[in-house]
Amino acid sequence: MDRHKEEHDDLLPPSGSNDGPSFPVSVTWSEAGYSSSSATLVQSPSTTRRIRLGRTPGVIAGLLFGAALTAVLHHVYLFILRGRTVSGQFWIKNSSNALSTLVQWLCMGHFALVSILAPNSLEVGSASPKNTTISVPTALFNKPINRIGCSSETLMGWNAPAGCGTACNYTIQYSAPALRCTELAIDEANTMLPVSQEIGNITVYTVYNATTLYTDPVVTEYMSIAWRTYDTNGKSTIAGTRCSLYNTTQQSVVSFVNNTGMISPSIISYNSPVNTDPTTFFWKCPDPGESSNATSVSLYTYALVGSWLFDQLEGAIIREPAESDGTLVYWLPGTDPSVNLATNNLFSLNETAGTFIPNSQNVSSALEQILDQLVWVYHVQRLWIIYATALAVTAACGAVGLACILKNGEDRDLTFWDIVRATRNSELDAIVDGEKCGDAGESTMLQYAVQGRDLEANTSGVFILARPRRKGSN
């Protein structure tokens, strides 16, 4: 019976020096009995590498630029919303979540996120509302009251009703008067604000003027307000508005938490202007001693509220130079009637800097607002703490990646030889680098290292060098 010769591979001991392992150059694959298909001769890579900036580096730079642009656009979007009245939150909320929703759906196409998103179906919500009749304190305007009273910036509160417990909310809808304002044309504002006028030997400038149609302290139809503001550079801007009293439907949400009450009023809709025509007013309001009805009480109440509102705004302010050259200025309010800048909170006056500026970008909207109206508040630092951190980390990682590409070249195809390069044993350096041992690669083969097969061999790498024995050798 013929005995078949077996071919064995001898593991080469690792080289401890910088010299590459010594291989018999005369032994080739054909002489060892191996066909050309059993191994592939891989030429050593060229030491000169070219970087194609249109691929990986371009993708890194493009994505980083896109992320920075997205952060800037988000900042601009929130900056535009700052100070605007909160009405409906549907479009604001959904537009803010559009990007995150898009990323979420893209991830769901590649990863199984069902287990992550499922718990979101459970959330904490408020209890179902219950209709309850309660008593709300209010002023009785059909009773004698003082015309002048103390004013404050807080609404009249009331104690929590019985059965409220630790927390409860009450939503109250009611009819009430409110201002509605429209912008004045520039020529109307200029008419109300003389450029200059002579008072004695001094030239003064009107910077604020608010007048009503009627002089009666109770009957008012509308008020026209014009102003000329000055910034720190001395530049002036003219604007104005006309405000009328309207019947409105308002809503107040009264919240009690741990015996602490909070009232949040808002205007739901503007209905019709309040009819304060003198004929109508005196015809419906009773004479002294006569009984009043609901219509007369409502009309008188609205007119009284309107008169109080206009009293806070009516008056004039003039700007008078302190010296003949006009370098130093101070502010002289009108004497009868005088506008109280401290209570209406529409403008800020700085005698030292010589400025007269509005406290709101839109004075007409500020006049229409009522106490505790919600507006958008944008905290810049909260947004940029997240974006700046993410962009800085991404930029650092991108810089490291670009440095590696410049040093080692771009990523190649994942061929077998590329895997060998990345997982080679130290004794393969001479073959991979192509700078040692000349053409030793022509008589070299690779063997997959198995831990424990040869205790004397260094099998720390995935692939090690192996040399085939000649045919006929023992």
UniProtKB/TrEMBL annotation:
The keyword Membrane applies. Keywords: Membrane, Transmembrane, Transmembrane helix. Residues 1-21 are annotated as: Disordered. Residues 1-11 have a biased composition (Basic and acidic residues). It comes from the Eukaryota. The keyword Membrane applies. The chain crosses the membrane at residues 59-81, 384-406. This is Uncharacterized protein. It comes from Armillaria borealis.
